[in-house]
């Protein structure tokens, strides 16, 4: 082979390699183009799913597309896909919504649509991340300073710590008898006003009689099993009995078809839920949603009547002339002449609004939006009308804890020319992070059920029971003597401004407990044989919760002196100090409680000092105390001041012996005993002897 031949062969190989490279490049470019077309088509399909409300399916498609888009070349489209994914998750209460929004923000999606800040704030508030939510709301308000929902959200995030400290009389607990694991159960509703039957919405799987559970195809909207209505009743013992499907509303299993609203196939099972009843429980309005021939026609409200234990063939309730308008969540007023419902009909405030219609014979007329006093640009749903006429509903647009909160609304009666609503967030324990909604009350009471997905990582709804305990008020305490011993023969008399005049005997241990009422002014007098009376006054005005007033009575004896604690004088002086006024005020009260007694008020010194000086000093101290009492309105004739100096040392009793075991019972703390003690114990005895006492002289002052 010549050199020429070698070069020629090399050129040939080079040309072959070049053709291969060009072919591979062409194939690669074609794959990229086809891939791009595929992603675009899938995004369009996801958009279609999103538009008809199949958020679960749309979210899955958006998620697949997001990973196939370049952060550099397709940043704008990637941001859009992430935002739409976040929107699906937000609507489905999926916690991944916050991460999807963050991905969209990294792609600068907010430059296309600042609404992402509003929705991100709502998601963060729903998750209880209030500081981050407030920042997101602030960013949205920079461009939309008048947006009510953003302002309400920011306000709520700043008030949440204060709201959490507010108490409530309501008590809640999970209604486990209605809930089933890994399913959603919500919107409970009493069947009629007897409160002995209940219906609620659930996506649990039923086991047909004699068969197995049949798993139906999950909803394209939520990814969960379809929702249906279940009913239950109380038995003779007041317990809820077996839960079963509402009879008569559902097709038999052999009629069930595959349910795909966009697949062009024949529609299958309908979703039925969120109901309301006439007062007699015979008529039911409920939400009904069933795609027909592959077309999602939205939710409708239907009406059915019960006969022989089953519900009749449902009939659609006509509310709008345009049959394409979605309506749901019916709530019938107690009178039965007003129907509240939810719709995103044109000319609303925004989002899902609460509307109302009035009944005229068998037609619903005067359909109208409840206005901005109730509705916001966010969602107001699940209306309910209490027997007393109060409107309850759920909203994520008014100031709240995050997600849907339960509100109650009343009409301000001071406005006669217009309807002005007064809203009140039900607060904890009804509301918290997550969604709280679908409340119902048992008749005219303040007890009932509501639904919430609080604490549920996968967003399952549960039914909770609530009750408002009756407010109870009591006065209780113990009646003792001055040494703390119970007075078992004590009697108590209670007089109230409402006409109450009752007498109660203390128990063996000196205790008592008396039921009292709210908004009453009371006076209670405690008495016992051989003891002075004691009296207490109080009122039960403006109470917002149950309360027990604890009032212990210590009755002083009539037959022996009573030492007054906390009476102080400066060394060698007799003026009553400021620190003594509290004890003297107690003596003023005792004298007023016992207007027929006279007393001797005596002062005593220790053994230190001149006898005459001690006598004079103690007399002046006793007089000083009496002067204070006279200034407080005690008649001079009822007081006898006496100074004993050191002439009447204390005689130890059991109480003093218990406190100082080295002082024998009945031992006089005289000079002989004190001087026999060590210096530290001498000072203790001197302190005990330095005292002010009173004793009863007469119990018939001005009695005859």
Describe the fold and architecture.
Strands 6, 7, 8, 9 and 10 form a five-stranded antiparallel beta sheet that branches. This protein has 704 residues and is α+β, with helices and mostly antiparallel strands. Helix 4 packs antiparallel against helix 5. It has twelve helices and 33 strands.
Briefly characterize the structure.
The protein has 704 residues and is α+β, with helices and mostly antiparallel strands. It is built from twelve helices and 33 strands.
Q: How far from one another are the termini? A: 156 Å
The total strand number stands at 33
Question: How much strand content do the residues show?
Answer: 25-35%
Low-pLDDT segments, ≥5 res: 1-36, 252-268
In which range does the helix fraction lie? 25-40%
Task: List descriptors.
alpha+beta, single chain, five-stranded antiparallel sheet, 12 helices, disordered N terminus, about 700 residues, four-stranded antiparallel sheet
Mind sketching the topology for me?
Layout: H1 3-51, H2 55-66, H3 75-91, H4 97-106, H5 115-126, H6 130-143, H7 148-165, E1 171-174, E2 185-190, E3 197-202, E4 228-233, E5 244-245, E6 271-277, E7 283-289, E8 299-307, E9 310-311, E10 315-316, E11 327-332, E12 338-343, E13 353-360, E14 363-369, E15 380-385, E16 391-395, E17 405-411, E18 421-425, E19 436-441, E20 448-452, E21 462-467, E22 473-481, E23 491-496, E24 501-505, E25 511-516, E26 521-527, E27 534-539, E28 547-550, E29 553-555, E30 562-564, H8 581-593, E31 598-604, H9 611-631, E32 639-645, H10 654-659, H11 671-675, H12 679-689, E33 691-698
Parallel strand pairs: 22-28, 22-29, 31-32
Antiparallel strand pairs: 1-21, 2-3, 3-4, 4-5, 6-7, 7-8, 8-9, 8-10, 11-12, 12-13, 13-14, 15-16, 16-17, 17-18, 19-20, 20-21, 22-25, 23-24, 23-26, 26-27, 30-33, 31-33
